[in-house]
Amino acid sequence: MVRRPPTVGQLAERIHALSARPGEWWHRARFEEGPVRVPLDEVDGVRLWLTTWPPGHRTDVHVHTGTEVSTVIAGELAEVKITGAGVTERPLRTNRVRVHGGGRTHELTNPGPAYAITLHATLA
Q: pTM of the entire structure?
């Protein structure tokens, strides 16, 4: 029997379930001068990680070619999305699962006074 890769919905469910169990990952959060990406698990072809974002940090403009699902757990992030139709900015609210991929070009910033924490899942 051939095992199929998880769907985007299944990735989103893993992130949602993981966010409800902070005892499994909170102790691994590291608050440093730059963003910190901490691998959490890799099961059934799905890679999970936690990222801490310091106040004022801005990523470079980048493209997600694969599918990634994420959620903001604490703090605040803003996304600047760049398309052929123009540039838009929006806040990324906590506890909402987002799907990134398909050649989406964007950058993220932490406009808040505190660290932000995100959880992510992608196909390994």
A: 0.89
